[in-house]
Specification:
homodimer, 509 residues, alpha/beta, Immunoglobulin-like, TIM Barrel, six-stranded mixed beta sheet, six-stranded parallel beta sheet, 10 helices, globular
Chain lengths: 509, 509
């Protein structure tokens, strides 16, 4: 037994890492094991470690209590066993812990701070050249986004024909030149020429990836990690069960200790012809068993939803199923699944040829408000034609659209909701109305009405004859909030007869 | 037998009228009958006449052949019988005969000229002051509208609290002042104070009405006559069976001979609490029996469709059932009902407080194009706040919106369709595509693609490798048509990445 006494401390919900040399003969990814037990007054967790290359094995742990921890590391990776201690300090300013489902339909960080998802998608931003990755982080820092969906595996798809900066496995890729854009835009499989050892990971690929997860964590942005996806020329979407399970275990061992991790089992799972329902359920089992921190879990569809009522799914991660009605179904999905509804794909702002990637900023923002007032959350993406083929939706970079700055405004409004979020409210057929949900005072005397593409010049409201209500007119596009008077009984609020207006009414006494 | 030899001739599909004095004692509307038989080499029709006040009875007839006609008039209205002759001349320039269903989904005038409905709604324009009626006709003359929906009975509803210029029955109306706007906006029934004799019509009311039907006929505009409706303070919506049937017979006797008449049994039939399905079916029976010319027949809904598959219904007269998806269902309704789909109400351009009356011009035009490219027809209405409470949708007057001039452009495009209209075509999920329908050459080598709120920067097309295809980019909002090249095989058309674009492709060889 070797004792390791770490002088350094770690903040609560931070990543505590133990790195130890071990055997590097044979295949360290499959032939040796490493496992850690971390325990304190209030918790006691066992987690797998992983081989990180160059003879180094690592075990990571995220402590949830501010107290002294003890750990034991053991496994076949070494003849030695390791033992040590460390202290956990209070969380730093922007560290609120992992995001949890707080009350059926809404989220909160583990410290109780409400979390209103405002997500975007940059599928393979972390596989682009370093400068572009840095630019993406800068753009994110200036935005309201607090969640980003991205992939571990590289992506082959329209506008995505370049090579990634690294590959997840040891081996060599196929020659891209054989896959002409015209015929292979939606190629999904393993093109001739690939030569991968699915039993040997490329640690550098994962080191890069988790550096970005860490960067996001420091910025307070949730990393909604897409573990599998179908847009593939390298064969990573059609590995066998043994390779898949090895991959899942490796990913969980490496990434679980980052508090900002969400597991998205797949993007468009239903396009992955080589995977069956039983495969997805098996991956979910692996996560539930091996992720010691119970990170959020979901799976994203193309045509048909996964059954979000499955117990392992923590929230709906939805791609809209209808071209015209998207966020309008949010309240129905809440009822159907009794879980938070996150509309991770409701088409992207842009002008590319594909119908999923060319809606206007107005329509994008409308969908977000529609989702919010129906008690759910929109998801952003951006696909503008670019001379260098850098599209935010896949590559990150800069944002060009008109919607992102309106999300800052929406985010401000959401943060003023009493309680944990908005719930749809019975409303007239021609409005969407929400009340505060989960407030200790019922609806919190807080109501939002949204008129979308309708342009009423005035609307009437009536709550009761006893209380005073304060009205504000919100222009969701021009980002203004205008006081509109205090009222008792039945009252009327004047509106400008423009699209995208909302009315907020708060009980004032 | 008295012989009447009319020197005057009548054009084919014109109105031939015989006016004869008769008894005016007792109740001429119920106690006396008048009936005419009109016959020629090619037709032989019997039609009811009607009492027109001041001791005069009339019988009207619309001849369908250019030949000599004989007629016999008889009934209890007089001890005399009448006999006469007249000649039918060719139709004048703008007279194409009544509109018929031409090929399941589309219309044509009786002379074979295609008819593409471009309708508007002005519920009670013909009951407004004369100057306003004249203004409405002037506005219509400057527009692309070729159909207008309007009511025989006056209307009580929001923005419609004034008295009409005349009433359909002898008697006196209730005092309007008792019906405050706030509480009676949707009043439907018979308010206290009404005193009507439902057995005695007011001929002046019908004379005014049919003068306007005649004006529209001269302008080439179809009169889609709403015979019943629920927005009522006078009790006309809750008359008994005897009164209803008398009314239907009177209306048919007066109006059938106008070639531009369409029968709309009701507006929002399902809001008429005093009428049952059997009533509607009985009215339909009366029309089918008494309208000798087989005018188009339909019925308009509020919440639930009437069963448009009923044999007496010639076309669907639809109010959209969903706030968000409206014209998008056109192709489904075609399949369901196998009849022309006319979307008589898909919300109105405007800014009033009601959700059915405050969409933008862009959204209105988008719905028309969406309907057109799915093989149906949109319907217009306009509801802008007005200091004098003159809203086109009810009162007529001037148009203020941005959509009407875009209908002229759409009308021009529709008139270039080979055959009788457009049929929806199998298309990618993110486009609406139509081909010419009913052309002698199949699809006529004529294709329209519409992108609505999507903003593609380019799209790809492929028909075959043999023929040359000519492409045009149509900006449906800015009303431009731009040549976009001739192609063989697979080809790409550049688009400006704006909303509301269409592409027309025609086979050039």
């Amino acid at each position: 037994m070797r004792e390791i006494n770490y002088v350094k401390t770690v903040e609560k919900w931070g990543v505590f890492e133990v790195a130890i040399p071990g055997y590097s003969d044979k295949n360290p990814f499959t032939d040796y094991t490493i496992r850690g037990r971390f325990y304190s007054k209030n918790e006691d967790k066992c987690v797998d470690g992983f081989y990180d290359g160059d003879g180094i094995y690592k075990v990571r742990f995220m402590p949830s209590f501010e107290e002294s921890y003890t750990f034991d590391i053991e496994g076949s990776f070494s003849e030695e066993k390791y033992h040590g201690f460390f202290d956990v300090t209070p969380p730093e300013k922007n560290n609120h812990g992992p995001v949890r489902v707080a009350n059926t339909y809404h989220f909160a960080y583990e410290d109780g701070t409400p979390y209103y998802p405002l997500g975007t998608t940059c599928y393979v931003w972390s596989l682009q050249p370093e400068e572009l990755q840095e630019l993406t982080l800068k753009t994110l820092a200036d935005s309201a986004f607090n969640k980003i969906r991205f992939c571990i595996f590289p992506k082959h798809y329209d506008y995505n024909f370049n090579e990634p900066i690294s590959y997840p496995y040891a081996g060599t890729p196929c020659d891209n030149s054989g896959l002409l854009k015209e015929n292979y835009i939606e190629y999904m499989g393993c093109a001739p020429g690939n030569n991968w050892d699915y039993m040997r990971f490329n640690p550098e690929h994962f080191q890069r990836f988790e550096k970005r997860v860490n960067d996001l964590m420091d910025m307070g942005i949730e990393a909604d990690i897409i573990v599998m996806h179908p847009y593939d020329r390298w064969g990573f979407s059609m590995m066998d069960k043994e390779a898949d399970d090895l991959y899942w275990n490796y990913v969980i061992a490496r990434l679980s200790a980052y508090r900002n991790v969400w597991w998205s089992l797949a993007n468009e799972y239903d396009l992955m012809a080589h995977k069956q329902l039983e495969d997805w359920e098996r991956y979910a089992e692996i996560i539930c068993k091996k992720d010691a921190y119970n990170h959020l879990r979901s799976i994203h569809n193309c045509r048909s939803f996964y059954d979000y009522s499955k117990p392992w799914i923590t929230h709906c991660s939805i791609q809209r199923q209808d071209t015209y009605k998207t966020a309008e179904y949010t309240d129905e999905w809440r009822i159907r699944y009794k879980k938070p509804v996150v509309l991770d794909e409701i088409a992207y702002e842009g002008n590319i040829q594909h119908g999923w990637g060319n809606i206007s900023g107005q329509e994008m923002v409308r969908r977000f408000w529609e989702a919010a007032c129906r008690g759910g959350y929109g998801g952003h993406g951006e696909t503008f034609m670019d001379p260098e083929n850098i599209l935010w939706w896949s590559h990150g970079g800069k944002l060009h659209g008109e919607s992102p700055k309106r999300f800052k405004f929406l985010s401000g409004i959401l943060k003023e909701t009493p309680g944990l979020g908005l719930a749809p409210m019975n409303a007239k057929w021609d409005e969407v109305a929400a009340r505060a949900d989960g407030s200790p005072f019922g609806d919190g005397g807080y109501y939002l009405y949204y008129y979308g593409f309708n342009r009423p010049s005035f609307r009437e409201y009536y709550f009761d004859d006893l209380h005073t209500y304060e009205a504000e007119v919100i222009d969701t596009w021009n980002m203004t909030i205008t006081k509109a008077g205090q009222y008792k009984g039945k009252f009327q609020v004047e509106l400008p007869g423009r699209e995208y207006m909302a009315v907020r009414i708060r009980q004032a006494d």
